[in-house]
Amino acid sequence: MNTSYSKGYVIALVGTLLWSATAVFIRYLNLEYKIPVLILAFWRDLFTAGIVFLAMALLKPSLIQKGFSHVRFFLGYGALLAVFNFLWTFSVFLNGAAISTVLAYSSAAFTAIFGWLLWREELHLPKIMAVVFSIIGCILVSGAHQVQQWTSNPIGILTGLLSGIAFAGYTLLGRLASQKRIPTPTVLGYTFLTAALLLLMANAFFPLKWIDSRNLLWLGNRWDGWVVLFLLALIPTIGGYGLYTFSLNFLPASIANLIATLEPSFTALQAYLLLGERFTSDQILGSVLILLGVILLRLNEIRQSNQERRTAYETTSSQTPVIRD
């Protein structure tokens, strides 16, 4: 195996493992400190933005300046990130770390649907199968097929599904950021800063009646809680995303995306070992279906990418003038 590929696999795996700890951190903060959803989401985004901007200021200040010409884009991107972070954090509170992560992965199917609706991307058989698998998987994982779940946890079911839709929108805007050739640290810093400011306004002006969301200093002098919040931003959010992005220097994006599909499995394992969370047989089957749908989409992306490269090569070869003696 190519040495650079081997290095890329290791980096992508470690990045995915760190990334997968996000929901476990959030669940721990909920269980241990009872920190409200909006406050937790705000501090996570603020710490993340602060760390990224500090790194850019020390290592490459020009990355900060590159964000000035994309203010309107970052406002929309950051708003969507704020919605996703709130919904996903809320889903972790209601459904647990493992289930919420699996439900968020339904975003792959929603991304395919949105791509078809917005950009008229073709829905080939693998995409259609992936969408069907994801929908059935979401129903099984969330318990939506059981009447008692709609009675006992209707908000949890809806929040988990909405988090997948929000993540799909966030993914599509990520593609747009890539097309605009905005550096990854710039995107990360400005979107998380925008999300933090919007969540701050939400905490100040639109507090949820059923949780105390005005008290931003909820943790008070519980410094161990502040350390966990800081580590949530540093390790899974920045560390995981940063290593995954760095792995793209050694691996094709399609392969790195396939490795990233291990995230729900890693989260489920950590939630089992650290939080004592368990999957039912229906939830295991649903998780497998969702992951199978994601893998189908990734493999379809690889096939299309290879076909496009082959077509481009054949076109270039046909246009190359033949030199005759």
Describe the structure.
α3 crosses α5 (71-95), α5 (71-95) runs antiparallel to α10 and α7 crosses α8. The mean pLDDT is 80. The chain is an all-alpha fold and 325 residues long. It is built from 15 helices and no strands.
Total number of beta strands: 0
Oligomer: single chain
End-to-end gap: 42 Å
The portion of residues assigned to helices is over 70%
Counting H and I runs of at least 4 residues, what is the number of helices?
A: 15
Q: Which of globular, elongated, flat, extended, rod-shaped describes the shape?
A: globular
What portion of the residues fall into strands of 2 or more residues?
Answer: under 5%
**Poorly predicted sequence stretches spanning 5 or more consecutive residues:** none
- State the secondary-structure class: mainly alpha
Rg calc = 21 Å
What's the SSE pattern? HHHHHHHHHHHHHHH
Q: Characterize the main sheet.
A: none
Helices and strands in order, then pairings?
Elements: H1 3-19, H2 22-33, H3 37-59, H4 62-65, H5 71-95, H6 97-104, H7 107-119, H8 125-142, H9 147-152, H10 154-179, H11 184-205, H12 223-247, H13 253-260, H14 263-275, H15 281-319
Helix pairs in contact: 1-12, 2-6, 2-12, 2-14, 3-5, 3-11, 3-12, 5-6, 5-10, 5-11, 6-10, 6-14, 7-8, 7-10, 8-15, 13-15
Keywords:
325 residues; globular; 0% strand; mainly alpha; 80% helix; 15 helices
